[in-house]
Amino acid sequence: MHLHRILARASARHFSTTPQVFNNNNSNANAMRVFDRSIKRIQRNASATLTDSSTFDYIRDEVADRLVDRLLDIKRRFPNVLDLGSGAGHIVKYVDKDMMDKLVMLDSAEKMLFRDQDKKYEVPIERVVGDEELLPFPEDSFDCVMSSMALHWVNDLPGTLIQVRKCLKPDSVFIGAMAGGDTLYELRTSLQLAQIEREGGVAPHVSPMADMKDLGSLLSRAGLTLTTLDTDEIVIKYPSMYELIQDLSDMGEGNAIFNRTASLNRDTIDAAAEIYKAVYGNPDGSIPATFQILYMIGWKPDPSQPKPLKRGSGEVSLKTLGESVPIA
Question: 143 with 170: CB under 8 angstroms?
């Protein structure tokens, strides 16, 4: 890992001011097309061919580690697990045979999916080239579906979550992590201010991402229940904005919005770098880049799952609670 990248954990909660637009219609065909997924495949396959490609796994590895921690909180073994949008394999680095029998890795970028095919892991794996928006699995196939840092490039997130629910067995769990709307807010703000100053207007150069407030509704509409949501941040220090932009490109995380404009001119980029350093810079001369990570858990319904009691079925009145507790 390059020395300029330093991970820092934070526990603050934030809500996005630049939400991704979702179509809650169940039809994939009717979904709003925000991202050019063919361009995204090209970008990610190009990243996989870099001689030092694995050097740029640090964000995905960190999030995968945190996601597996959440899986360990569920005191159950999951024989057959799907890693949706697996990339080269990040979740597989942190799981073992005590957790699962097999991990199926699905990704739309073939070169990225097979980048580390010669590596050995404790859990047997199967690699499947497929579209994250069109899952090729029959219903009731998996005991668990996991997805780490892939869903922020999906156009039809509601449709994908519905397919996830269908391919889960009853009383099985989906555990996901995706970039949230406050991700790279420092970069977004700096680019916007520089564009207004030098070009007189703003064009999108950082992709829109999901809002935390959307996720609970999306999971429920997909038919998942017993949902849990939380968020945290990963803050990474870079020498300057230039290294940040280069790393994002080498990760395959470049702009893939359909209506993206041509690249920024050098004058605007230089102005953005100065703004970034002046507004957000650290005392040591480095700049921080914040990655907001949204975590979600939802279960496929099953009659065996606990259900809330009906209204009025309680046997203790709230009015009497204070009577049984002595006040000092």
Answer: no
DSSP characters for 258-312? TT--SPPPHHHHHHHHHHHHHHH--TTS-EEEEEEEEEEEEE---TTS--PPPTT
Which amino acid, 31? A
d(CA 33, CA 52): 32
- For residue 119, what is the DSSP state? -
Cut 0.85: pTM above it = no
User: What DSSP designation does 22 have?
Assistant: -
Q: How many helices (H) and strands (E) are present in the chain, helices listed first?
A: 8, 8
- DSSP annotation of 28 reads G
Query: Beta partners for 83?
Result: 105, 146
The dihedral built from the CA positions of residue 136, 140, 144 and 145, taken in this order, carries a sign that is positive
B/e letters for 7-36, b = 16+ CB within 10 Å, e = fewer, are eeeeeeebebeebbebbeeeebeebeebbb
The string of pLDDT tens digits covering residues 87-136 is 999 999 999 999 999 999 999 999 999 999 999 999 999 999 999 999 99
Tokens of 158: 């509601």
The pLDDT value recorded for residue 167 is: 97
Alpha helix segments (H runs only) across the chain: 37-48, 58-72, 110-113, 157-167, 185-199, 212-221, 241-250, 266-280
Cβ proximity of 101 and 124 under 8 Å: yes
Place of tokens 């990655």: 291
Distance between CA atoms of 224 and 305, rounded to whole angstroms? 12
Q: Round to whole Å and give the CA distance between 164 and 176.
A: 11
One-letter amino acid identity for 53? S
Paired sense of beta strands 7-10 and 225-238, if any? antiparallel
